[in-house]
Specification:
single chain, Beta-Lactamase, Alpha-Beta Plaits, five-stranded parallel beta sheet, 26 strands, PAS-like_dom_sf
């Protein structure tokens, strides 16, 4: 996990779907937020590798072994630790002599990171933490290697193009000098200067001071001031110069860098401007380089937030650059890079184009839409694929994969944006069987399960476009079934057709301050549906779950009043607003005032997860509560007599306060039989009726 706010992306291979809840609860108690995918066959594993994972936990598979998993990881070239859980029947005796036939020897030989017994959850937690740390270190090391390589390339480009005279010396003799240095001292080639003592370029009158200057630097490693001296050219002419020295490395070996300026030609401001321009320019394509792009991306994201404008980031990768380089050499790959740069500059003339890497480009396009930029990108790939590139007497062709990430006011940081575009370009090759030659637009709905930021953007889009799906689950009234009652749930559709549950997206909505807006959307749309239902089924009521933000929102009672009026009035009390017990406890004074206001507007109020705290009953002394829904921990196992007695006690106490009780989570006939006998007025659960898109009462 590269950031503390990120969730662990855990891929589990097991035949039991129930393991997901167990692992999530286990990791959650240890402070490790987790997004889990469970699979058990080879085909699902191949699909899963299209996404990014942090750890694979292998337990058992339908048609796949952990050996298959290791081979898949190696074939994909992934850095992905695998933890293998073995049954408790396996011997874990550390003193046992190792052999080639032992499960541990075989697993570690194949590259498995850890082998553990299934009955040791704390060992599993420690192993996951360790493997995450190791993975993060490896990822950081790779990033640093890339940065170092990029810095070295920039340095060499700077030296080659710099108008400043630069040389490297080792033990007092020249080992390298750029063109400006040779020109300054009147030498035609580097060969003339290699091996020449640097003191040969210093006038005799300054020689002693120059040697002292070098001695001070050699001893202290610091250059406290510039050294002014008279330089001697190859033809014997002289000029006044200023010398700066500092540490450097050449071909991996430490040395001293010398920068010399002709005093008569020094122009500091112009030099700085030239250096800044050179440092941000790619010499082959004349496009901005990666450094310039990174600065521009930060500025673009800031503008998107400040001016609420939409931009697009395109990451373009040349598909067959390896084949081109192998068949035509450096000349062919350079010509290909230049041709692609030329077409990108032509196609996106109103944009900022950059050469990001050896065979990759980045483009920042202002004021665009997903539809528009996708069309332009597709046209670009087609133009590039049709282009003929001449290399001497040969003609070659190439294709590109373009990944697109939109930049808006809710977009993540620059690093994540670049990652989105990069992964989208990589996805083109996955979709086209490694060929590429296409585009892929990053879709938050496809990544909401793996990224909190993507989920945030999907939530924003769902609120804006009304993409949430409302579900209704009936609640059985043991005393009166004339007025059907339904609990309302919000579901979030994903791009792959799956549906995300509130316990997955509500934490993200809470983190980004979206709960109040989501509550209001649910209230408004649930009431619209209720109004239509009342025409055919008068007396229908809805139980609507609201967040802590709504419990504190003093303007919400007025909205609720308008909604109840719009659906036909408050006489039948059509709305029951439900809040979590922990929220009511934490905001007791505000809760008391707002609940009183809700009830005055004709709404009833319910408390969810009742019994989850030590002082649950005291809430009834402070708040006007119509209904309580008993916490799941009491009712999920009613075969336990202790739970049965606890529920009976809660029901009796709540009823004595004048409030009603709901027992939910009834999922089998035994639980139904027990719940019926406990005196609760309302019963609910999958055994009675599953949630559905319509308000259908099957009682």
């Amino acid at each position: 996990m590269s950031r503390k706010s990120e969730s662990l992306r855990l891929l589990v291979v097991d035949e039991s779907p129930a393991i997901a809840d167990e692992l999530t609860d286990l990791l959650k108690t240890q402070g490790i937020p987790t997004r889990i995918q469970i699979l058990d066959d080879r085909e699902e594993l191949e699909k899963a590798f299209r996404h990014t994972w942090d750890i694979i936990l292998f337990i058992s598979g339908y048609d796949i072994s952990y050996e298959d998993v290791m081979r898949q990881i190696q074939s994909h070239g992934l850095d992905l630790p695998v933890i293998l859980l073995l049954s408790d029947h396996t011997s874990f005796d550390l003193n046992q002599k190792e052999s080639a036939n032992s499960p541990f020897f075989k697993a570690y030989t194949l590259g498995v990171s850890d082998v553990l017994p299934t009955s040791r959850p704390l060992l599993l937690i420690q192993s996951i933490r360790r493997e995450l740390r190791n993975l993060e270190h490896r990822r950081n090391e790779r990033n640093l290697e890339l940065l170092l390589g990029d810095a070295e390339r920039r340095s060499q480009l700077f030296l080659k193009n710099s108008k400043t005279a630069v040389s490297y010396i080792d033990e007092g003799v020249h080992i390298f000098a750029n063109e400006s240095y040779l020109e300054l001292f009147g030498y035609e080639s580097l060969d003339e200067l290699i091996g020449m003592p640097v003191i040969d370029l210093v006038d005799s009158k300054d020689l002693m001071e120059f040697k002292d200057f070098l001695k001070v630097y050699t001893k202290t490693g610091r250059n406290v001031a510039d050294f002014n001296f008279c330089g001697v050219c190859a033809d014997g002419s002289r000029f006044e110069a200023t010398l700066q020295i500092g540490p450097a490395s050449f071909e991996g070996e430490p040395c001293i860098q010398m920068i010399i300026q002709h005093q008569a030609k020094a122009n500091t401001q112009l030099l700085e401007a030239q250096l800044a321009a050179i440092e941000r320019l790619d010499g082959l394509t004349n496009l901005g380089n990666r450094r310039a792009f990174e600065e521009a991306l930060e500025a673009t994201r800031d503008n998107a937030i400040k001016f609420k404008q939409q931009y697009a980031l395109l990451f373009t990768s040349i598909d067959n650059i390896g084949q081109i380089s192998a068949s035509t050499g450096l000349a062919g790959s350079d010509a290909t890079v230049q041709k692609v740069a030329e077409i990108l500059s032509s196609q996106f003339s109103n944009a900022q184009n950059y050469r990001f890497g050896d065979s990759t480009f980045a483009t920042l396009v202002p004021n665009t839409s997903p539809e528009s930029i996708s069309a332009y990108a597709q046209a670009t790939t087609e133009q590039i694929s049709k282009s003929l590139i001449s290399i001497g007497n040969r003609t070659i062709q190439t294709t590109v994969s373009i990944g697109i990430a939109m930049i808006s006011e809710t977009s993540p940081n620059a690093t994540e944006l670049l990652s989105r575009a990069f992964n989208s370009a990589d996805k083109v090759k996955l979709q086209n069987h490694g060929i590429g030659n296409g585009i892929n637009l990053y879709n938050p709905a496809e990544n909401a399960s793996q990224s909190d930021q993507a989920l945030r953007e999907l939530l924003e889009e769902a609120l804006e476009k009304g993409n949430f799906k409302l579900m209704f689950q009936s609640i059985y009234d043991t005393r009166n079934d004339a007025n059907p009652l339904f609990e309302v749930y919000a579901r979030l559709p994903l791009a792959d057709g799956k549906i995300m549950q509130p316990d997955e997206f509500m934490p993200v909505a809470h983190r980004y301050g979206m709960e109040s807006r989501l509550d209001r959307w649910i209230l408004l749309n649930a009431c619209k549906r209720l109004k239509g239902q009342l025409a055919a089924h008068p007396g229908t009521r809805l139980l609507i779950n609201l967040s802590s933000d709504s419990l504190q929102d003093t303007s919400l009672p007025l909205l609720v009043s308008k909604l109840t009026t719009a659906i036909g009035g408050a006489e039948n009390k059509p709305l029951i607003l439900q809040f979590n017990e922990s929220d009511a406890t934490n905001y007791l004074k505000l809760a008391r005032d707002n609940i009183h206001a809700f009830r005055e507007k004709g709404c009833q109020v319910s408390i969810n997860n009742f019994g989850s705290s030590m002082n649950s009953m005291s809430l009834l002394n402070h708040l006007e509560i119509d209904l309580v829904k008993i916490d799941k921990s009491f009712v999920q196992d009613l075969s336990n007599e202790e739970n049965v007695q606890a529920v009976k006690k809660i029901t009796a106490n709540v009823t004595s306060h004048g409030s009603q009780v709901m027992i939910a989570y009834i999922e089998n006939p035994t639980a139904m039989s027990k719940a019926w006998s406990m005196g609760a007025r309302y019963l609910q659960g999958y055994y009675l009726q599953m949630p559905s898109e319509d308000m259908v009462f099957e009682g």
